[in-house]
Amino acid sequence: MKRKETTDRAMAILARLKKRYPVPETMLVHENPWELLVATVLAAQCTDARVNTITPELFRRWPDPASLAGASQEELEDVIHAAGFYHSKAKNLIGAAKRVVEAYGGEVPHTLEELVTLPGVARKTANVVLWGSFGINEGLAVDTHVKRLSFRLGLTKNTEPVKIEQDLIRIFPREEWGDVNHRLVWFGRDVCDARRPACSECELYDLCPRKGVKTPPEPPVRKK
Q: Could you say which DSSP state residue 2 is in?
């Protein structure tokens, strides 16, 4: 499909997602950039809902980078155990806290280049923090939902997150990047499930090539 056709379809998809989710935002509960960064690191291979049950105690014990930098890994592991991959997550969070304190004066940096120098922070997390905390669209965060929906909707042929991101930022306006992520994530949770997409209830049905969907779904029943 030609770029213009893909872009036109992407904008039609976005218009419908805007109608469904007029005020998109992350589901991760946070009060500042550091808390969003920590929560996003914990959310890897873990649901936002579960992360939100972990972070209150985590932030009660270690409310800022300086306090977490001095935490023992074992104690932190006990607190974040339910998030999964707790050994590497605890190690990375303590490492990130130390670097924020030592290199950035205790403040979360504002650039992609600086953020990805923090242990455990790759492009996805950096993009989430930049948009969610600073309103900066440097890139488009590609998580499992965005990856799945982008392919199903025919917006990319790639499977690698970095390449998918490049495809998406070419077809969506820069000012929409952060909210495109949130809207696709919400739609992936509510409608376009990984194993059982609710195609018969989907308002994107006529725009979607349903790539990778094995069972041909019935079209939605339109209300008269």
A: -
